[in-house]
Structure formats: structure tokens, C-alpha cells
Amino acid sequence: MTNQTPDQPDFFVCDIFDAAPKGDMASMEHPVFALSTKPDTSVRIYEHRGMTLKVTPSVEGLATVYDRDILIYCISQIIRAMNDDRPVSKVVRFQAADMLRATNRQTTGRYYELLRAGLERLAGTRISTNITTGGQEVFENFGLVERSRIVRETRDGRMQEIEVVLSDWVFNAIKAKEVLTLSRDYFRLRKPIERRLYELARKHCGIQREWRIGLDLLRMKCGSSSAPKKFRELIRAIIEEDERDSHIPDYAIRMDDEGQTVLFVSRGSVPDAKDAIEVPQLDPDIYEMAREVAPGWDLRYIEQEWRMWVKEKPKNPEIAFLGFCRKWYERRGSP
Question: What are the boundaries of each domain within the chain?
Fold first, then answer.
């Protein structure tokens, strides 16, 4: 049973459509998540500058970089609620479909099953570390998610509403706002190693012009099990692709001629926190009007697309959203 303070609800409901993606700094900097898409049942031990991390899998394998999307979604929602002075809790409820859409996944049966498996790996993966979050060390062996359960399912057995209990390690980081905003294009990166490279660049390069790191240290911080030569080839292939189409968000990746140092160069697209655009929640009455101008469409999906499209805070958010819905329907017609 989770002890609740007077201003902390029994659970927090994820109901914010435009929450900017946020990742906790600790797991952005250190290799908590597996890069493999196949079950990885090896124990991972990481030591760097006095910090130690031991990650032990369950029989289902280590939590993966893609499983991390669940935590990113929860963290993003809680941080936005805190910014709006709403009470929050480490017990989090969310609609499965909302989480899938927010992380660029399809709402089909296969993706619901992948979500279910990700929840099991997050709860089953055990962490032992002296890495602090929110100024607190958590010495006991813990899971990134203490537990998860399906609150509601559809008649055909598809999960609908999910409840997770975040670990103290993660929740301490959230309360201390030890988080960084991620590009929404992070969820479009296809390869786990690309996501990991972006996380490291976002943490270490930030809004600086560039950041350099030796290839051996980069391999360790990525948590890669590839041999050094193979890892160099993987990084070179990603760099060649990035040189062609600039597919890594916010940062260009390059390597020196000797192949020993990797350079991350800011593209200038990472905003300062003071420049972040946050559009307030809409008046509920506007949705009835929106249904009339965009009949048949999922308004949650359209609103999410609108909030991603907005470049400056509108003077009248409801009118701006309604206009977006009208143009959306004019261009696409019925779904």
C-alpha cells in the first residue's frame, strides 16, 4: 500500500494531450535499458566515476529502450501536471490507446501485446545502484515500475486502462524535475542504438554547440554488448545515414578520421525551457463544435497533432483548435 500525503491523490490520471516528452536524466546518462529487441537475460554491471549500476533481468529479459516509452509518457504527464499545480502521485493511470498514439505507435492488437510485454519487463527488471535521483540514494533492489495492472479491458480482451506504480527512484527524479524535454521525433527513430545516442546527446550536449566523447566510453554509456570493431561500424553506418538525411533529431553526429572520437553538433533546434510553448487545456464545450466540423475523426488525435503544430501560444486556443479541425477535414475528408 502506498502512503499518500494529504495533497497527494490515490492515483494520478494521465489526461493531458500536449504534454511534451520528458526523460529522466539518470537513465538518459546511464545504460539502464537494453538495446536488443530480442529477450536479453544477461546481468548488466556498469561502473563509471564512482557510480555503479547493476541491472538484473527477469525471465522475460531486460527492459528495453522501447519499454522506456511507457516511463517517458508517465513522466511527461506528471511534469506537466506539476507545472499546472495539479496534485500528482507515483500511482499513474492512463489509457493504453493514448500512450500508444503519444509514442508514435499504432493502436492495433500487436502493439497492445507489445505494451503488455513492456510492462512486465519494466516491473521484472531489477536495479541496484548508488546513482541518486532527487538528492536521494535508493539502495534496495527495485524495479523501474513497482507493479502494473490492467484496470479495464475491452470485450475482446484488449487492454484499455492501465495502472502503474512508479519506483521511488523514478518518482524522486520527477519531483525534483531532474528531467529533460525530448524531441517528438525521438519516437520515430527505428534503431534502439539511435535512440540511445540521442538520449546521450540531449543529456551531455544539451543546448551547447557540440559535445565530444571517445568511442570506447560511448560504447560503455550506450550499454552496447557489441565488440568494439562492430560498434564502430554501427556508429559509422548511423553517421552516414545522418549525413544523407539528418534523421537524428536536434543533433548531427560525426566521427574523427581515426574513428576514435564521436562528435555531436547541435542543430539549434533544442529550445530553452523558458521558450517552451504550453497551450492550456481547452474548454470542454469546444469538442462538440469540433465534432461538427471534423465528423468521424478522433478529436484526441487531432488535438495532439494541433498542439505539436502550434509554434506560438494562440490568443484564443479554442478558436485556433476549431480552425485547425476545419482545415484538417477539408484536406482529408472522412476517416
Answer: 12-182, 190-266, 278-332
